[in-house]
Structure formats: C-alpha cells, structure tokens
Design goal:
This protein is of the alpha/beta class. It is built from eleven helices and ten strands. Helix content is 36%, strand content 11%.
Length: 295
C-alpha cells in the first residue's frame, strides 16, 4: 500500500496557475486518476492557506468536503496561517486546530508562510500545533521576500532551534532547501536547487534525523526523489538508516504531474536495494503510525 502524505487538489477549477492559462490545479477526480495510474492507494490533502503559495485557494473546508466525498481515497490535513485571527504571537490558534482535528484532520500542512522559522508568529503556530498534537509538514524557503515557505539560513539553524523548542511536535521536512542539505557540499548558490553528483559527508538532514526524535522527512517532489537517487549508493544506505523517519509523498498538484516516486520505490525494492521492511515502513506504515490513521 502507498499513502501519499503530500497532495493538493481544488474543489473545482477557477484561476489558472500560469499567465498562459493552460496549467491548472488538479480536481479530486483528476487526482484519483493519477493515483490509479501510479498505484497510490490514499492521499493526504493539504489546503492552500498561505497567500504567498497560491493562485487559487483551497480552504480547509474544501479539503474536508472532498475527503467526505471520497473517504476511501483522501485524508485531510488542515493549515492555519500564523497571521490568522489577530496577526499576533498571542493568537489562540488552538481554537482552529482543535476544531479541525475534531473534524478529522491528521496534521498541519503544507505550512508555507514566508516568515522565518523563529519568527514569533511561526513559533506561536508551532506551540499550538504541539499543544494539539498535530504534526507539521513544512516547505522551506531560502529567504523572506519573493518566495514562499518558512525561511531558514544555510544549514537550517532556525529549524534546529524549533526542533529543540518544541520536542513534542513532529516536524516533516520538504522542499529543495531542505533536501539539498542531505550532503555537506551544499552552498548558498545551490541550496534552493538540485545539487548533482556524489553526496559528501556532513549533511545537516542526516544529522537532524539522527539527533532529534521529532524530525521526519517526506520524499515528495523532485527535491525528495532527487536527493535519494542522485547518488545511489548513498541513497540506499540513507533509506535503510532512516527507514523509521521517511514518509512517501509526491506533492502532486496538477493533472499534468506524473511523479515517479512509487515506481522508484518499487524498483528499489524489487532490485533488493531496500528491504521489504523498509519499503513497507516508508510507503505507508510510518505515516500510519505518526499520523494515527488507524489503518
């Protein structure tokens, strides 16, 4: 079984994602077609809640409605912008999170406000996520301004500060600026890209996964898949070493997406590069465990 922890849909098409007008977000029916094509059983839907990250909003209520319509295929996440209610680090975001958790949301994501990890508003969101026992899936950006995602510096010191400050909160890493830190060769120039070649020692991502029980990662988008496959020998060892910390995902958001993540995982397993135990953990068991899906 595959549980995809990172998917996006919109209830119906409105504004195109590009100015050419030919690139749209996926509808639920289009997403299910892609899932059937790639052999993905269930998908966790993340709303589009942060204005930096969208051309068309998908509210938590939209996601809940879609999950109620297709309960065998979709599972809801919620997302609350840290500027919500009062744009204040004292805002009671637990009111929203507790309500959405009661409605069936299993986590918070994809969190994309273009503020620093240790901005008081973001720290307030994390505090309430920890209080409500809601894991957080986030997108990292390399700067504030002209970007989307929570911003951090080279080698992710602000993320590490949050891991230390909120030990009871599960953080799920994602994006180029996260996965480029898999090796010690990352630089300011390539940290928001897809570094090529052999992966050198000293990467921050392996250290954070090793050192912090609350640090997890998902393999979605080009960033996650590229990190695991650019250096096959390193990737196979990394998967084995962190098989309890990795989650399957694709970040599929458009009907034109055709991600190879499930195909690659099946190939790694069939060619015995990863064990059956690791394959099952990453493909669905870890998500089932940390998100308390009850499957």
């Amino acid at each position: 079984m595959f549980i995809d922890v990172h998917m996006h849909v919109v209830r119906k098409k409105t504004l195109a994602r590009n100015e050419a007008g030919d690139y749209f977000y996926a509808t639920p029916e289009e997403q299910i077609q892609l899932m059937d094509k790639t052999g993905v059983d269930k998908g966790i839907l993340s709303p589009y809640a942060n204005p930096e990250a969208v051309t068309q909003y998908a509210t938590v209520e939209d996601v809940l409605e879609i999950c109620e319509t297709y309960p065998d295929r979709f599972i809801p996440f919620c997302s609350v912008d840290p500027r919500a209610i009062s744009n204040s680090p004292d805002a009671n975001l637990s009111r929203h999170l507790a309500y959405y958790k009661e409605r069936g949301c299993k986590g918070v994501g994809e969190v994309c406000p273009n503020l620093y990890f240790d901005d008081p508003l973001v720290m307030n969101l994390f505090k309430h996520c920890e209080m409500c026992e809601m894991p957080v899936l986030f997108h990292i950006a390399v700067k504030v301004g002209g970007a989307y995602g929570i911003a951090d510096d080279l080698h992710l010191p602000r993320l590490e500060k949050c891991l230390q400050t909120f030990p009871g909160l599960i953080f799920i890493g994602h994006s180029q600026a996260y996965w480029s830190e898999i090796g010690g060769d990352v630089t300011e120039e390539n940290r928001n890209r897809y570094p090529e070649g052999k992966i050198g020692p000293g990467g921050v991502v392996p250290r954070l996964l090793e050192q912090y029980p609350n640090m997890y990662a998902e393999i979605s988008a080009r960033s996650g898949l590229h990190a695991l496959t650019r250096d096959p020998e390193f990737g196979h060892e990394f998967i084995d070493r962190f098989q309890d910390k990795l989650l399957f995902g694709t970040d599929t958001s458009s009907p034109t997406n055709d991600h190879r993540h499930a195909e690659v995982m099946r190939t790694l397993h069939s060619e015995t590069h990863i064990s059956t135990e690791a394959f099952e953990k990453i493909s669905w068991q870890n998500a089932n465990r940390i998100l308390k899906l009850g499957l």
